[in-house]
Design goal:
heterodimer; A: about 190 residues; alpha+beta; N-terminal domain of TfIIb; 3 domains; three-stranded antiparallel sheet; three-stranded mixed sheet; 8 strands; about 30% helix; B: about 900 residues; alpha/beta; Rossmann fold; Barwin-like endoglucanases; six-stranded mixed sheet; three-stranded parallel sheet; 30 strands; 4Fe-4S (chain A); 4 iron, 4 sulfur cluster binding (chain A)
Chain lengths: ~190, ~900
């Protein structure tokens, strides 16, 4: 190591001679941190996304390596958010990769005190059975004057404000065709 | 705003940097107050008194933007001589029907149109939350009206407004809201001085305004101010709703709501809309001005998108497949019906009512009385585990081995594990790309509902039942891809946009929708999002590469328009009001409207255009009628119909208040939706006895670090660490009065529940001097529940169920309670404590609070109605 390199290794020297007089950036950087590479730079791909929390609609860039989300950053191109995210948006990677997420179907039998496992395909079949039974038991064809009602008040649904427009469209379309009227979401509260 | 919408708040700070004055009105000093120029603490539930004071200040000092007001609002319109104001009715308008606690609106109409406009009796409108339909357009009135351009006629809207708000003086504002008059005048001065030809002012609100029994009228008062000051349809102006979920705007536009179909078409009512023609005519109201005149095309095209080949002009496009409303089918009515055993099955799709909805105990007792419950969420939420871990299990009200509800928990895909659009708070659709596959059994709602529908249709194939035709006729053939047969979100977006049925060509705009079955449009206001076969919502041109309007980022409904009613940014002759506030204007050389945004006007209709006699629909709009979705083309200072609790806002006390209304004998909103059910109750308010049992006012809101009912934040480690505990914030004065210790425990009691919280004593809450006495307010976050990394009691358990009559949104921003030091009791003793309070407060299960509290009842137009006995008793 030459004397010049040795001196240049002193943060105070870099602070006095370089472009960082306050010593809060390049002047203070260690050799180790200078050698690090951000995982955003080595990502396999980047998906352009939108924050899932409030309705401001901040732009997000979702970084993926080996088919796993490795980082979520604010999108600097967004005219809405200009690259910024709040504490919740900044925690989105922790949200989607949280170990607390449920990834299997859980089933609670009537009068049971515990959860059980259930196959997804079986669950879908069981739900379809129950929907058809509830419709049959509670169907109202006409009112007392013979005017059409064409509905069931035996089925309710709540939620939609966290979902995509395309999802809300299919939810409303299917429930309406089922005759299920009692469809509501967070906009009511 | 800095707390709940922090990144949006950067624009407020940007404006402040450029000289804007920022006012913050809130019961609690927050991160927003900390950087505002002026902070006004307010008694929760009194905003109409404050805003009404501003209206009076404007009118008294003639500070309205007169040229704008005359040309663009209904200030000059003459109202029926049958109309009587709250000034004469002690807080009731003419037309009040005490038998149904609702108004007959005939006397509110414009002169000469008493019989042919409005909705007449409004009890039915309340049950169907009809006010929500007006999210995209005004209510019905006839387009041709009598006007007095001098604004001197005693029955013109301008003079009615003056009389109505005359008593909202600075002294009254101080007396009602607890805001010192100097502070109020500072606000009124700044607002008016920063509005007009060269300047505009913006109003930003959130659920602090909507979650009240008079919530819609809060926003109406804001609208009156903004119209009087000429702040609508102009850059830097407007009334901006900051909504709380990523696509809550989208789920209102494409509604998962009982009373609406996509694009704010009403769900049919069994008695009012027995046929397709009657349904369509009730929407377009023949004779009115504006774009709702084309409602038949939007309606026919929606049914065509739903039922495809089966929908033809000959069968009214399968109109009889639609279910019919008969009354109130809203979420709170549903929960009471669950408790009464009327509902078999319940789907929860990313919503957690056990924590997020008012009266958590009613929510949980309802869910414990179902045949089956399907919960689709990212995490194991309180609404999935109520049968095991809910507070009612501890009190013995829910016994797991006796609870019959069968529960399916199906894991959902997160926002990065599916593609699709969110509509954010300014109507902007933004497409999200899919980053990764969802883990394990997790699936999108698109997948779940597509495949559930497919299975239902397979099982019903060949069914002889009439009831199954709507499912079997359904157009339900979306292309799928990938290992799980995920349906194509782009194909659904294309259907939402609409297409020509014979060629498949996506429509360029809703102007191309037809009423003959040749077009299918899933949501007419979104038409154009897939114009030219291009996903316009996926556009991401950098803000550095376009102007400040940023029209090439995403796509805004309608027609990619960023400011609604922007014709009003030009004067009646089509010239910008000022160079500084130039936005959209008429180019006489080119013969068209031009500017920075997509003009909200027919492109080549000149400012001088006057409609021919007898015109209706868009052709009836004059060249200087900027409010193109309104039935008379004007901004409404006075609402002759469409608002069920009055044509003008009036201060009523919240349903639960420690105070008698200082303005009128009528205490609370006389049309509020009340449920007399044994599980529900309202704490007594004056003139009832025993209001002192619940002497304190409490309010709730969000913390920056948590999200709604906590499912997306109490489960996330960094956020749970930042705000780890349920707490109640109180002033030092209240802490001394109630014996509370900083960082100690307290419990709060209402007529519904008792909850506990850690005490945070700060001077961010201040006792208010109101109507000669001191009112203490407490503040709570509403994010906590019994699941997740950090847990605590739920603030929403304290609230009962009382709703705004227009949109059926609950009053959950203000209630009354008692507060005591120490932890709450556990087990059955917990209910004993609540029962003791109920007994002392005289709460009788299933009882209705008195609705009318004034002996004055003069229902003009309904001479047969006498005063109501129960009201008179309490007056």
């Amino acid at each position: 190591m030459g004397l010049r390199t040795f001196i240049a290794g002193w943060p105070v020297y870099r602070q006095l001679t370089g472009t960082d007089p306050l010593g809060r950036g390049a002047a203070a950087q260690s050799g180790r941190s200078a050698g690090l590479t951000a995982r955003t730079e080595t990502a396999d791909r980047v998906a352009r996304s939108v924050c899932p929390y409030c309705a401001v609609g901040c732009g997000q860039r979702v970084y993926v390596s080996d088919d796993r989300v490795t980082q979520i950053e604010g999108d600097p191109d967004s005219p809405i958010s200009r690259g910024r995210l709040c504490p919740k948006g900044s925690a989105s990677k922790s949200l989607v990769t949280s170990p607390l997420r449920q990834t299997t179907v859980r089933y609670r039998r009537p009068y049971s005190t515990e959860w059980e496992d259930l196959d997804l395909d079986t669950a879908l079949d069981m739900i379809a059975d129950r929907v058809l039974a509830a419709r049959e038991q509670t169907w109202e064809d006409v009112d007392s004057d013979g005017r059409p009602l064409h509905r069931t008040l035996g089925i309710s649904s709540l939620g939609g404000a966290t979902l995509d427009n395309e999802e809300n469209y299919l939810i409303k379309k299917l429930f309406t065709a089922m005759g299920a009227l009692q469809i509501e979401n967070q906009a009511r509260i | 705003m800095a707390e709940a919408h922090p990144v949006g708040f950067q624009w407020v700070m940007e404006a402040k940097r450029r000289g804007a004055k920022v006012f913050h009105v809130d019961p609690r000093f927050t991160r927003t107050s900390a950087v505002a120029d002026s902070y006004l603490p307010i008694r929760a539930g009194t905003d109409i008194a404050l805003l009404g004071g501003v209206v009076r200040y404007i009118l008294d000092n003639e500070l309205d933007f007169r040229e704008y007001v005359l040309a663009y609002t209904n200030a000059a319109t003459i109202v029926s001589e049958q109309f009587a104001d709250t000034e004469d009715g002690d807080g009731l308008f003419s037309g009040y029907d005490p038998n149904t606690d609702s108004y007959v609106q005939t006397s509110w109409q414009y002169a000469g149109h008493e019989a042919d406009s409005g909705s007449g009796h409004t009890a039915k409108e309340r049950d169907s939350a009809a006010g929500l339909r007006h999210e995209s357009h005004g209510a019905q009135v006839h387009g041709q009206v009598q006007r007095d351009e001098t604004l001197q006629h005693p029955r013109c809207v301008y003079q009615i407004l003056r009389r109505h708000f005359a008593r909202y003086t600075p002294e009254m504002v101080e007396r009602v809201c607890g805001i010192p008059r100097e502070k109020f005048l500072e606000l009124a001065r700044a607002w008016t001085e920063n509005s007009g030809r060269d300047r505009t002012g913006a109003l930003v609100y959130s659920v602090g305004w909507t979650q009240h029994s008079v919530g819609v009228q809060y926003i109406r008062t804001g609208a009156i101010i903004q119209l009087l000051l000429g702040n609508m349809g102009r850059p830097g102006g407007g009334i901006l709703a900051l909504r709380g979920h990523a696509s809550i705007q989208g789920s209102t536009d494409i509604p998962t709501l009982f009373n609406l179909l996509p694009g704010y078409l009403p769900m049919p009512h069994h008695a009012d809309h027995p046929t397709f023609d009657e349904w369509v005519d009730s929407i377009r109201h023949p004779g009115q001005k504006g774009f709702w005149g084309n409602a038949r095309a939007y309606a026919a095209s929606l049914l065509k998108a739903y039922w495809g080949d089966a929908a033809t002009p000959d069968n009214d496009f399968c109109y009889d497949h639609l279910p019919r409303m008969t009354g109130d089918h809203g979420t709170y009515q549903q929960v009471l019906n669950m408790i009464d055993g009327k509902v078999r099955g319940y789907f929860l799709l990313g919503q957690n009512p056990a924590v997020g909805s008012a009266h958590g105990r009613a929510q949980r007792l309802g869910m414990a009385n179902l045949d089956w419950l399907v919960v689709r969420d990212l995490f194991m939420i309180e609404s999935a585990t109520f049968w095991k871990n809910g507070p009612e299990v501890a009190t013995g009200e829910i016994v797991p081995t006796e609870c019959r509800t069968e529960v399916f928990f199906l894991p959902a895909a997160s926002h990065v594990e599916k593609e699709g659009t969110f509509t954010q708070t300014q109507r902007l659709l933004q497409w999200r790309e899919k980053a990764v596959e969802p883990p394990g059994d997790a699936r999108s709602e698109l997948w779940f509902f597509y495949h559930l529908g497919r299975r239902l249709r397979e099982r019903l194939a060949g069914s002889p039942h009439r009831r199954d035709r709507a499912l079997l006729d359904l157009a339900w053939d979306y292309p799928t891809h990938g290992p799980h047969d995920e349906p194509s979100a782009e194909a659904v977006l294309r259907e939402i946009n609409g297409y020509d049925v014979s060629t498949g060509r996506p429509l360029a705009s809703f102007a191309e929708a037809k009423d003959d079955g040749s077009t299918a449009v899933g949501c007419w206001i979104y038409s154009g999002v897939y114009a030219d076969g291009v996903n316009q919502a996926a556009r991401r041109r950098s803000r550095h590469e376009q102007d400040w309007v940023a029209a090439q980022w995403g796509w805004a409904w309608p027609a990619n328009r960023r400011i609604l009613y922007n014709r009003a940014s030009a004067d009646p002759q089509g010239r910008p009001w000022s160079e500084r506030k130039k936005y959209v204007w008429w180019d006489p050389q080119a013969g068209e409207w031009t500017g920075y945004d997509v003009p909200d006007f027919e492109k080549t209709k000149p400012p001088t255009y006057r409609p021919p006699q007898g015109a209706s629909g868009p052709a009836a709009l004059a060249g200087d009628d900027p409010f193109v979705m309104q039935a008379d083309g004007k901004g409404w200072l006075y609402a002759p119909s469409g608002v069920l609790d009055g044509p003008l806002p009036t201060h009523y006390e919240p349903a639960e208040s420690p105070l008698r209304n200082p303005l009128y004998g009528q205490q609370a909103n006389p049309t509020r939706k009340v449920y007399a059910h044994p599980v529900n109750s309202v704490n007594p308010s004056p003139p009832q006895e025993h209001s002192q049992v619940f002497p304190y006012v409490f309010t709730v809101s969000r913390l920056t670090e948590h999200h709604t009912a906590g499912a997306m934040s109490r489960t996330v480690r960094p956020l749970a660490e930042l705000q780890p505990e349920m707490f109640v914030e109180v002033s030092p004065e209240l802490a001394a009065e109630a014996g509370l210790t900083h960082l100690g425990w307290a419990h709060l009691v209402s007529g519904r529940a008792v909850i506990e919280a850690k005490v945070l004593v700060t001077d961010r809450l201040t006792p208010l001097r109101v109507d000669g006495r001191v009112i203490h307010q407490l503040w709570l976050p509403y994010h906590f529940g019994y699941e997740g990394l950090v847990t605590g009691d739920s603030a929403n358990d304290l609230f009962g169920i009382t709703l705004d009559p227009n949109v059926l949104i609950q009053e959950s921003k203000v209630g009354t309670c008692d507060v005591r030091p120490g932890r709450r009791p556990t087990g059955p003793a917990l209910r004993d404590l609540v029962e003791d309070y109920r007994r002392r407060a005289g709460i009788v299960p299933g009882d209705r609070p008195p609705t009318v509290t004034t002996p004055v009842l003069r229902p003009a137009g309904r001479s047969d109605d006498g005063p109501r006995e129960k009201g008179a008793d309490h007056a």
